Amino acid sequence: MRATVGRVAAVAGSVVLTGGLGTDSLTLPGTLAILTTAGLGLAVNAKILRAPVAVRGTAIAVYLAPHTGCAAVLIGERLAPDSPVSVLVQAAVVAVWTGATWILRPGQLARDLVDEALAQELADAIAAAQADAAEETAVEPVVHASAQARWWSEQVAVEGGVAPGTVLLEHSQVSEGCLALIIGADQHGRPVPDIPVPGLSALLDLPEDLIEIGPVPGRGAGVRLLVLGRRPQPAGGDSALEGDAEVWAEIAATAMPGVELIDAATYEVRKELT
Prior knowledge:
The chain has helices at residues 2-20, 27-43, 46-49, 53-79, 84-104, 106-137, 147-156, 197-204, 240-252; strands at residues 166-175, 178-185, 211-215, 223-229. It is of the alpha+beta class. Strands 1-2-4-3 form a 4-stranded antiparallel β-sheet, sandwiched between helices.
């Protein structure tokens, strides 16, 4: 329908311009008719008026180009000198306007520009939505609290390792030969999986009797205390128990409240955990 109306308008404009070659009486009514047609045509083209801002001005200019050109040619015919050569030049201009309007179809071209802009906006919106979704679902890199925690994650807690499903929450160098670690489950509300002492012994190259795994006093099954090496005790007989309590009170100040030292010895712990 729009294509047919555009063709009819092009023919009508050509007729008016051709008539203007022979009489000046068509200049004013013809110009008014052209302007009215342009205004009505633009008013019913809501797609162009509501086009994205980036192309709206261009689309309107393209749509109005044949109307503007027709009015300019019609006024030029009125102002042109009255001579055979001038009439031939004016007739050539009318032919060019008619051919260009018929072939280029500015109205359809303007709507095509709008369609392309809308399609690009839709594609950009989809791409942005996909990017946001990918960003939301992307796995953030794990940031370990310490080099020891990273070593535990990469060497001990890996799938198929000695203690999968665990994380190293805290560690404390009790003495030169004793290290205490707090191990937690990697999911809140889950108990710490059983950690096989022989597996740790083989991994750390540490005798099994120097590895202790037990509960953390005052805490649930979601954390476990792992002691590597012999627990230290100060020199002296009767004051040993009091000295042990002081040592473990220092540990309790960080991550192991309520843990009681019951034995002591010296052992060189692997460098990965120190």
